[in-house]
Amino acid sequence: MADQTVFTTPDPTVRELLATHSNLSLDVRSGLMLDGVPLQAIADEIGTPCWVMSADTLRKRAAKLHNAMKSAGLSVSTHFAVKSNDHLAVLSIVSQAGMGADVVSGGELIKARKAGIPASRIVFSGVGKTDAELRLALQEGIAQINVESAEELEILSGVASSMGREIDVALRVNPDVDAKTHAKITTGVAGNKFGIPYDEALGLYRLASELSGLRPVGYAVHIGSQILTMEPYRAAYGRIAELVRVTRQAGLPVTVVDCGGGLGICYRDEGEGSPEALAGVIRSELGDLDVHLAIEPGRWIAAPAGVLLASVILRKKVTEGSPFIILDAAMNDLLRPSLYEAWHGILPLSAHDAVLAPEEACVVGPVCETGDTFAQDRSLPPLQRGARVAILDTGAYGAVMSSTYNARPLAAEVLVDGDRWSVIRPRQKVEDLWANEILSEGMRVEA
């Protein structure tokens, strides 16, 4: 699995990281390039920290996924997991690449619509949809709601009936299959908050067919994220296939199976989840069911498309152990290393720095938390004050999880398209941090 703290192989070198990231290259004069753009040029003009996304990478990965399904003889609807990156520019690009949206909140639903994604290509997942969110979904006329509990089924029926509407629903089933990924991103094991227990699914499907306002159309399953092998998918889809057959034997129609997402990427040296292999598993386990198939990729599409640029504030020597390389980016920008112990590649922007002999260093941010750490004892070229780096594979669960902790403004966001780039979110101004804060009556702020 990718999210771990102990590795048995040496850290990838600069050359090895470049070899696994086809959208990155090292130019002897311009330094690290994303597609046709020198990242130093962006950092010079915009400053750091700064997120940079590759439009071309988003398009290519969406096309590769679609081609894998088509080559396997499958007709599969793809719904981009908006939680992985909800920027309007990103949503617009994946929509133009033929993807719909998988949303988990009313806000995501509205953003998907704002980005031009038709309601007919939106699926609403999540364990805790409010009445207001359900009403919004019904008003918009989205394609499907994935229901995750008996309680939600009753609530949705009541909301739909009160509005005089009907909506397609799929029951999200918890198949009790371990995806062998990080504990905080597994979602299909008994004890997780997600989904309906497998043994209760048929009874609830029957109930859904009797409730007003609901049209039960099938089942959904999602077992976790950053999945690199096909065995967990095969086990989960096999259980869903059996459930479809049993449901039909009970006289209830099933026309949809939502296969979820979770396909993993290569952060370090673990290899990448194969869309061709996933298509093969879907075909072998579900291909003979005569159902409409759907998948919900997020990380696999967006993560390799993005980098986080940062500058070295200072290099702190210690008496024993590796020096601390303190960046101007922090856990409020990129939370994954602190939250999941996640490994992200780090490359210098300077071609000169990139060829220096590596040393071990701890890469950290300036936030007042010990957990504000990007890398422990990482083998890196020696980085001095003022050096710039790119933290790799941050296009998913990067900017979207940012906060303003320690009163640190949100970083700027940039989109690269070929050899052109543009700012898609300006850096937040410090004064914006309190723009919507209200003092209690009688209080005042001294000038």
TrEMBL record:
Transmembrane segments: none annotated. Pathway: Amino-acid biosynthesis; L-lysine biosynthesis via DAP pathway; L-lysine from DL-2,6-diaminopimelate: step 1/1. It comes from the Bacteria. It catalyses: meso-2,6-diaminopimelate + H(+) = L-lysine + CO2. Pfam families: Orn_Arg_deC_N. The active site is at 368 (proton donor). Keywords: Amino-acid biosynthesis, Decarboxylase, Lyase, Lysine biosynthesis, Pyridoxal phosphate. This is Diaminopimelate decarboxylase.
